[in-house]
Amino acid sequence: MLRLLILLALGVFLAIRILGIRADCNVCASVSNVACISNTAFQFCSSALPSGPVYTCPTGYYCTADDVTCNTNVALRSCIGCGTCDSSNTFACLTATTFALCLGSSTPSQLVGSCGSSNVCNFNNPYICGSPAAGTQATCPGDGTGTGVDVSTITPTTYCSMVQQRGRYPVGIDLNTTCRQYIYCFLNASSWAGGLYDCPGQTYFNSSSKYCGAAVPARCTTGVATLTLTNP
Ligand SMILES: *[C@@H]1O[C@H](CO)[C@@H](O)[C@H](O)[C@H]1NC(C)=O
Ligand SMILES: *[C@@H]1O[C@H](CO)[C@@H](O)[C@H](O)[C@H]1NC(C)=O
Ligand SMILES: *[C@@H]1O[C@H](CO)[C@@H](O)[C@H](O)[C@H]1NC(C)=O
Q: Are residues 127 and 185 in the same domain?
């Protein structure tokens, strides 16, 4: 009987935990006071509403409603809609910057398009692509060309306490400055801390290898925004 009660209590605890972490997109999570606004971006909440600067999770991490906001487990992500046709069956975002037309069906077709290098695909945007600078968030995770942490709006230690993972993360996209820097997150006693570091010499931080290298990373070369349709 006691064993049954313990099992029941465990079941209720797990159910609450699963419900708790399965929050929706743009909804403030009670555990973290953070709202995911896309698969990979989040805002802090004030009076239960997301507000203020937009922060991005490191490459390979998804925004979740868990107490650790950025998580590598894709199943925990709050914002779904990636790869799904929108309510009017017009398009589905495939990656942060590409989409497929749905042609009136609920399955994405082979007809794919690109948002160009400075726009992102958003599931709720009737124009499909929009500029992140104007507030459009990517529905699908980034493709490894994430722009990193904006250290003018968040300190490395605040960022590291969101990520809660030891490692090096990219900072920005300015060829001469932030492309040559990285944030290193580490556990200092029991709290997460982070520092801003410079790559040696004339090297750039490679967000895939997590090392500084001589080659200029793709995120540091600015492109021209174009909307191109390709029929494979
Ligand atoms: C980057 O540095 C180069 C050479 O030092 C300089 O010519 C260029 O104007 C700089 N670019 C920016 C955006 O500061
Ligand atoms: C680590 O934590 C201690 C105590 O909180 C603090 O004094 C110290 O400056 C921290 N070190 C770093 C590198 O953040
Ligand atoms: C970054 O590192 C990856 C993995 O080591 C490598 O394949 C890629 O070529 C590097 N990119 C640049 C721009 O150096």
A: yes
